[in-house]
Amino acid sequence: MTTYAYRLLNVFAESTFGGNPLCVFEDARGLDDATMQALALQFNLSETTFILPSERAAAQVRIFTTGYEMRFAGHPTLGTAHVVRELAAAGDAFSLEFKAGVVPVTAQGDVWTFTAPHAGAPRTAPAGLPDAQMAGLLGLTAADLLAPPVWVDTGADQLLVPLRSVDAVRRAQPDGSRLDAWPQSSLGRKTAYVFAFDPAQPGQVVARYFFTKQGGGVAEDPGTGSACANLGGWIVASGRALPATCRIAQGEAVGRPCALHLEVTAARAIRVGGRVIEIGRGTVTL
After folding, report:
1. To which CATH superfamily is domain 3-107+276-285 assigned?
2. Domains 3-107+276-285 and 123-268 share a fold
3. pLDDT tens per residue, range 115-154
4. Does residue 26 have an active-site annotation?
5. What's the pTM?
6. Which pLDDT score, from 0 to 100, does residue 138 have?
7. Are the beta carbons of 169 and 198 closer than 8 angstroms?
8. 46, 12 in Cβ contact below 8 A?
């Protein structure tokens, strides 16, 4: 039998029990894919990561949800970087290897930032549904839309739904009975990232991220770094003025407030950051 150490962290957290939870296995050598998937289901968090050696970066990282492996995700990147810094004495600037590519990360204390792997020329595609229908699937109307929903990919493709008001973001209520009508990502995922710029607070964005669950129904993610990066891609694709910086508030509706920081440079680099708090450690024996 072998013992594997793990850590529990909250990412994009401004308080101990805020942020998006993450489990990080410190050394996944000896674990096969099926066991990694089983451990992710065991911990039942939105993502669990596994650290492995890399010839291209400070570490290789595998990311699993409860149902499948992901090529890249935001809060797992930052939380895992926090662990790698200590384990590998890597300092405050290094890279991590993902299936989506090598991603640079930097830190100032416990605030971490990653640079999106496909930032300069974000991939975009139409939503695949009429605007009114897509809005209706989210419990909204076409009048709530600021612009047509669009798929954006700066590392993991997601459907971005720009709304006219913060009120519309808070009113969004996906219709779980109509999941068959939701458009799917390139990986077969059904997601929607709804967001609005807050005119009362320049530079502030309020966002929510919905995704379909195994077995049916819709869940809401507290803080979604990859979608925040895709918001940066949306800013680039929309021709908005650069450089741009935003603070994204997410997670309020699920009682896990998150604060994400987005920077899009004049050269179209997209950087997403937030605070990481470690709250516990343990081991699993297999």
Report:
1. Diaminopimelate Epimerase; Chain A, domain 1 (3.10.310.10)
2. yes
3. 988 766 788 999 989 999 999 999 999 999 999 999 999 9
4. no
5. 0.92
6. 96
7. no
8. no
How far, in Å, CA of 163 to CA of 147, rounded? 7
pLDDT of residue 237: 93
Q: What is the sign of the dihedral through the CA atoms of 7, 37, 252 and 108? A: positive
Which of the residues in the chain have pLDDT under 70?
119-120, 214-215
Output 283-286 pairs: Cβ under 8 A, ≥24 positions apart.
283/3, 283/4, 283/5, 283/6, 284/3, 284/4, 284/6, 284/39, 284/42, 285/1, 285/2, 285/3, 285/4, 286/1, 286/2, 286/4, 286/31, 286/35
Q: Model confidence over 159-179: pLDDT tens digits?
A: 999 999 999 999 999 987 887
Q: Which of 14, 26, 47, 252 is catalytic?
A: 47
pLDDT of residue 182: 85
Which residues fall within 8 angstroms of residue 161, CB to CB, at 6 or more apart? 134, 135, 138, 145, 149, 192, 193, 194, 195
Residue with tokens 């925040």, as numbered in its chain: 228
What phi, psi does 30 have (nearest 5°)? 100, -10
Q: Which CATH superfamily is domain 123-268 in?
A: Diaminopimelate Epimerase; Chain A, domain 1 (3.10.310.10)
CA distances (Å), 46 to each of 19, 65, 178, 225, 230, in order? Answer: 12, 6, 23, 13, 19
Sheet strands (E) in the chain = 3-11, 20-25, 48-52, 59-64, 69-70, 93-98, 101-108, 111-115, 123-126, 150-153, 158-162, 191-197, 204-212, 218-221, 244-250, 258-264, 270-285
Domain ranges of the chain: 3-107+276-285, 123-268
Rounded CA separation 79/169 (Å): 27
Which one-letter amino acid corresponds to residue 13?
Answer: A
